[in-house]
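Hey, I was hoping to borrow your eyes for a little while. No rush at all, and the record is pasted right below:
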Amino acid sequence: MSELSVQLYTVRDALAQDFDGTLSKLAAFGFTQVEPFAFVNFADELRSGLATNGLTAPTAHIHLLGKDHDAICELAAELGIQTIIEPYVDSTRWQSEPDVSEIASELNAVAAKAAGYGLRVGYHNHHFELESKISGVHALEVLADRVAPEVVLEVDTYWAYAGGADVPALLTRLGERVVALHIKDGDGTLDTSKQVPVGSGVVPVWDIIDAAPEALRVVELDDSETDLLEAVRASRQFLLADRA
């Protein structure tokens, strides 16, 4: 099984209280990789915290469309990030083929700039890119057909499930385009407070993982009624347990 990562947005409140201490806790759980979010806002903390705690950040979320790409790319390269991922494009832009094609063009332009820094560009979905269908095809798949070959996908498997997709089948169709998965669990609704440690909800986690076995697995909860650090620990334990 490939190594696990964890999306730092999950523990954003703990980071706000004690950034380095929270990274230390994640490292103590056994994580060697993390996925930062909005990393330009935490540049100094990441510069010191990653190295101090023996962590790397192969992927990271950052808003890319309409931003200063050079500044973002320079910092990403400095931090050792390899893939910068656009985390969200407004739901209103996923309702028609021309709109999705425009998103693809914007991502392609960023990818061309990022390549000069040795970086890849990716896109991360929510539920609405799957809920929306264009000529019977999930809008996320329409995007995948229109972006350049070097643009990759990080499929948020919970949101794809909540959006009505057959997630293992979706991943099979997307194939090698998918380089990372957000692995999360819950009751399958849009209520983020109902998200739970991986393995204790309704999402068919192992079927999903088996459909994209080479993708980086990134543990994430958007929110929860349980303690988020404990949920991260329990999720890692479940994902590394013997499945037999």
User: Anything to note?
Assistant: The longest helix spans residues 97-115. The chain has one domain: 4-240. The radius of gyration is 17 Å.
